[in-house]
Amino acid sequence: MIQIEAVLDENGILRACKAAGHAGAGPTGTDIVCAAVSVLMRTAVRVLSGRKGITVRCDAPDPGFLFWEADYTEEGREFLSAAGVFLIEGLASVVEEYPQYCTLTIRRT
Questions:
Q1: Taking residues 24-35, what's their average pLDDT?
Q2: Long-range contact list for 86-93, CB < 8 A, 24+ apart?
Q3: Strand partners, 85
Q4: DSSP-derived secondary structure for the chain
Q5: Per-residue pLDDT averaged across 55-66, rounded?
Q6: What is the pLDDT of residue 29?
Q7: Which of 68, 70, 77, 95 has the most CB within a 10 Å radius?
Q8: Domain positions in the chain
Q9: From CA 6, how far away is CA 54, in angstroms rounded?
């Protein structure tokens, strides 16, 4: 099971996201649930990392684990907010379609 945790700040902006575990929805290398979560998470990190006004720290020490957190200035606020909505909606869609293979917890600070 993939356990996803998203952390929103007091303004509702996504500040951190962690995905840990393996879905087990198919053989290694062909698991569509793992692939969907991985693509969403990795794309978020890439898009945010290149954006002015946003600083991203990322860690993926082992297969099946990816964590990132972001700080932002006023210049990056709107973009991070939009990217966060996109990521959470994408992850929620995967969870909705495959609830037996992944969970999503959203926490507010």
A1: 93
A2: 86/44, 87/6, 87/14, 87/17, 87/40, 87/41, 87/44, 88/6, 88/14, 90/36, 90/40, 91/4, 91/6, 91/17, 91/37, 91/40
A3: none
A4: -EEEEEEE-TTS-EEEEEEES---SSSTT--HHHHHHHHHHHHHHHHHHTSTTEEEEEE--STTEEEEEEEE-HHHHHHHHHHHHHHHHHHHHHHHH-TTTEEEEEEE-
A5: 95
A6: 85
A7: 70
A8: 2-108
A9: 17
Specify the CATH class of 2-108 in words. alpha beta
Residue type, 26: G
Q: What is the largest CA-CA distance in the chain?
A: 44
19-55: b or e for each residue (b if 16 or more CB lie within 10 Å)?
bebbbebeeeeebebbebbbebbeebbebbeebeebe
Closest C-alpha to 84, from 36, 20, 13:
13
pLDDT at 28 over 90: no
